[in-house]
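Write out the bound-state structure for adenosine-5'-triphosphate.
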Amino acid sequence: MEAINSALTAILANRMRSFLTILGIVIGVTSVILLISLVSGLQTFITSQIQGLGSNLLIVIPGRIGGARSPGGVQANRLVYSDAVNLRNRLQSEAQVSAAIQRNATLKHANKTDKGVAVFGVEANYQKVISIKITEGRFFKQSEADSSKKVAVIGPTVKSNLFGEGKALDQTIDVAGLKYSVIGTLAPRGAVFGIDFDNSIYIPFQTAQRQFGIDRLNTIYISANSADNVKDVQERAINLLQKRLSEDEFTVQTQEQTLSIISQVTGVLTAALGGIAAISLIVGGIGIMNIMLVSVTERTKEIGLRKAVGAKPSDIRNQFLIEAVTLSGLGGIIGIILGIGISLIIGRFFTTTIPLWSVVLAFGFSMLVGIIFGVTPAIRAARLDPIEALRHE
Amino acid sequence: MSSLVKLSKVNKIYSTGEISLQALKDINLEVKKGEFVAIIGASGSGKSTLMNIIGLLDHPTSGIYFLEGQDTSNLSENDLAYLRNKKLGFVFQSFNLLPRTTSLDNVALPLIYAGLNRPQRLEKAQRALEAVGLADKLDSHPSQLSGGQQQKVAIARALVNNPDIILADEPTGNLDTKSSEEIMKIFDTLNKQGITILMITHEKDIAKHAKRIIRLKDGKIV
Ligand SMILES: Nc1ncnc2c1ncn2[C@@H]1O[C@H](COP(=O)(O)OP(=O)(O)OP(=O)(O)O)[C@@H](O)[C@H]1O
Ligand SMILES: [Mg+2]
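---
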């Protein structure tokens, strides 16, 4: 405790220099905390989104995930509506099946436009398969879907972009040139890294197919009737699809699998960002080593005196080591405060969560950097010859 | 009186590259407890070299140095540090106080290495400063003190751990006559109290305070 006190005194004697020295550590720790809070916030958000869809849900997407080829990449999408119909007929007793397509389009109302809106063409049973919340109005009915009615359920961002505070229900909007009438609005879902999940609308599947001339599906949603037969349904769906498609032309994925892929991705992301942050911590450590070497030279006379009055080499070594660790620990604490602060500010726009382990890790790492880079100057100080040190000017 | 410092055939040779210089030649010297000894001699005669060896800051090239009868030849760094802390007190020509540090903390410095806690250290340091007449300068930094006052702080620091001997290398070298006299008065008092003093000086007036004078010439006692 007392050693830390005198280390702090030495550090405060050179305020500006100490601050500049620990800047590297501060930046390193701040970025560790910040990046981890963003990535784990992203993970929390996506996980809650996916769990919000229901754990009984399976999704069928074109292409292969986890295989040698990139998902939906090189090979053409061969998933079509008849695949969904086939699944629906065969899995009638154990699951709900719903097909979906998606396009981006520009929406207009009066003199307002909303660009890059995700337009989902979904079936009338979509609401039963995926739990989405309607705040106003209703979702479209089977009859409206069958007759390709131009009706739309719009997300909150679309609503505010086109109608502001005004009434959206029963108004007409222009979706890529065709007029749709708004029959419902959705509850907000949020945004991550600038991707706004609320800037989307839902229109009947057949209507979308006709307007955009698409026959390939983006997704088939399958909702198992009970949690127990999710695996079973997955197996049967795979078998059924394999009658027409080859193994790498589609993926049937459970929520559990989706979550594990996401945690893999965020894990890699965390490791990569952590690596970058670690580099900045090491650079910070070199800064500390540099300034400690300068400090040893500057205080050579003090070291000589301390030895003359009875300091053992280990006393001198510890003094400088504690000073280095106090410097880096101080940088760590400032970095943690900054990281948490900035993360809380960003948290107003994106989901961020600060896991305790990231704080412990960042602080521990900054202390470790202090020890590793403080050792060389400290040993150099401990080995100084007292007479030469005392003669030093 | 028992022998405190005893040097037997001590030589010190400095070799820098090709050139080697014999700073001390066959020094035999004994200082008994309670003595006040002055070492005089021309510049370069080896006074500081001798003092550093007695202060356990340097090793003789050959010969043996006994401190209180103990052969110091084969002591470890830690043993030497312990002896410097417990038995020796240094006073330097250039004071060597820590800057931006109060008198009290400067004087308390050796006690850190004696393992005392802070309240004990400050109490002893205060008493040492009172003993040299600086009771009113406890919280002053060296930059706020005159040269004479700084040297008094340094003497208090040398005294604080009750050493057996005070080693002073030209303690008045940087001081005016008046301050020098004050410092010497302190030394006289300390010596009367039984503290052994070994002092290097250039000045005859200063050397007169000592009870014995040793003259060095070209590394030899004459
Ligand atoms: N580290 C060293 N390396 C080489 N030579 C040295 C070293 N220290 C001292 N000397 C030499 O040893 C001789 C004695 O030096 P010392 O410092 O003991 O003299 P001194 O009597 O204290 O002189 P002064 O009165 O000027 O302080 C000198 O010739 C000096 O140059
Ligand atoms: Mg000298």
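---
Chain A has a mean pLDDT of 89.
The pocket of magnesium ion (ligand 2) is lined by residues B 47-48, 169 (CB under 6 Å).
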